[in-house]
Structure formats: structure tokens, C-alpha cells
Amino acid sequence: MSIGLYIHVPFCRSKCPYCAFYFVVGRAELRGRYVDALVAEIGRAADRVPFAGRTLSSVYFGGGTPAVLEPAEVARVVRAAAAAFGLEPDAEVSLEANPDRLDASRIAGFREAGVNRLTLGFQATRPLRLRALGRTHSPGDSLRAYEAARAAGFENIAIDLIFGTPGQDAASWAAEVEEVAALAPEHVSVYELTPEEGTRLARHLREERVRLPDSDTRADMFDDAGEVLGRYGLERYEISNFARAHRECRHNADAWRGLDAIGVGASAASHAGNARWTNVADLDAYIARIESGEDATAEREILDEGTWAAEDLYLGLRLMEGIDATARLARLPEPARERITAVLETARAAGLLATGGGRFRLTQRGLLLADSVFEDLLTDVRPTAGR
User: Fold this and answer.
1) What is the pLDDT of residues 304-318, one digit of tens each?
2) Dihedral angle at the C-alpha atoms of 179, 183, 186, 192, nearest 10 degrees?
3) Are the C-beta atoms of residues 249 and 94 closer than 8 Å to each other?
């Protein structure tokens, strides 16, 4: 059975005010040792019982800013993954990249390194919005990066956008989405700006230094994105993700379907069955542990059956294909099965879920209020799941 590999690259050139992922600014002197550690951890992961003998259907370089790595370093990690596990013939190898300092030569180098899916972090197409998001690139940089990726032979390009920034209105947002869709990318991700705890954005909101658009405006933006992208042949397959036929992000879609995945690098998470573990979120500690032959794991968790089922259902509901709850719940103890079923039925009665063909799916209203369904599944189920 194949499996996905996530590689966390924490290096960034600047700090975005909304980012809650683990990253470091600068520290370029440690990049070589970090790549060495990634290669070593990949080799060790291939010997772990849950992963031994499995091939890779996807490799995903996330961050941070993976494109700060040199193409030769990316190629080295891809080769290490292929040597340790073996790549499926059609394996998806994705790399996230910010448009700044991303010239044609660098993009071509990533393609030669084995990357066949490039995700460009446009985030916005207006200078004022880019500044509000703390981005260091211009709209021109984004367009040049996209054109260079096409010239380099990339046939699978994804573009990331963020909506709901301070001062933004629905009409200008729809125009931005149309500009991006007109470029004809294979995939577009549309994320609502969310004030994650510990970020500068969250602090500025508390201090009333900035204000986000109201909930009705954000809901209009969410709906408008789907309408515009649909007109350009990009269909929603997950709450925030749109793709042309057969161009869904395989790595993420497999994760939403609850398939096992390996994570390497500082702060990277892995899961196999109901087991979860996460690496230490500290660059120096991660390198030191790997170099000394130690395990980089910081936290481990074994989910009970009820919590595992609730997590699987929550992830599966993110996909427009929905979930077959019956099969997943059949093996649970009766109290846990009844509690999760009650949560699903309550959401259905409220118009947040629809049923058909034995599957539950989010409705259009459910897409807007999905967090409330997920919170019920992940929070309300836990106290009774083990009874």
C-alpha cells in the first residue's frame, strides 16, 4: 500500500503576521545540516514498522518556505525518498514557493529536481493586500513566477489565495479571483484569514489596531470564490480547494481520507492507523537529535476508537465526496456509535449535512458553518467515546 511523505522546511525570509506554522527567519547557515537531517530521518522512517515496504504516492515540501532550498538540495531529498521507499510511477511531488526571488532558473531547477507540482503563494493580487498580509512580493512577481513555471514545463500549478483581510470588500475580492482563474492554473486554494493564537494578527485584533470584514462579507467572499472558479472549470473538491479534473492535491486529499502519512523535519506530524506523533518544533533540537541518532519525536498519542472515528469523519467531511459513516462506525462500542450518529443527525436536521447513497456531505450552508460540525465531532464525542 502506498503512503504520503510530508517534508517540513521551516526556513523563511520574513515573518508573516498570520502564520502559526513552525518557522524560523534566517538561520541559513543551518540549511545544509537540516537537509542532512531530513535525509537521515527519511531513511530511518522507511524501517519503522508502520511504513516498511510501502511506496510513496506523494511527496510534499511544505513550510516555512521550501523554495529557499537550492534545487540541488531538493533533488537530494527526493532521491533519498525514492531510495528509501520507492516512488510510484505517477507520484505527485509538490513544492510550495513564494513568488519573491523565484527566477526562471530556480524554477527550472526545481522541475529538474523531480518536482512536478508547484504551489505558488500569490495570497493576493493587490499591492495593499499583500502589504497587509506581510508579503514581500509584488503582483508582478507572482505573474512572472507563474509564467516561468509554465516555461519550465510545469503542467500542474496550484495558486494559494487568502481572503478576509482588513479593509477588503467582496467586489474587489471577486475580481482578484477572476484574475487568478484566467491564468488557467490546475488548482486554486482559497483560505479565509484566521487569527491564530500567538500570531501578530491575533494580537493586533485584540488591540483593535485592525478589523476584519464582517461575517456576512466573508461569507459572500467564500461563495463568490466558488462561483468564479467554477465558471473557469475549477471545481470545489474540499472546503477551501478547487481543481480541474484529476488535478486535486493527492497528498492532501489522501490525508483528508485518513490514509497513513509520514512527516519528517522539525514540527512535522505522522500518523498510522490510530497512532499520532509529532517531531520537536525546534530547529536546533531537531538537528541535534537526528545527528546524535535519537528519535526527533516530541509527542505521541494513541487515539481511542471513538476519537479516531470522529477525527476520520471530520477529515472526510471536508471533501465534497463526503463520508460513509456506517462502515466507519460499525466497529465502535454502542455508546460511542450513538453519540457520533447523534452529532451527524443534528447537523443534518440543521441543514448543515445532506445524505444520499449512504454518505454524509456538507451542504452549501454546511460549508460556511463547517467548523461547528467539526467542533461537535472532535469535542463533544470525546467524553463518551470510550464508554
Assistant:
1) 888 888 888 889 999
2) -20
3) yes
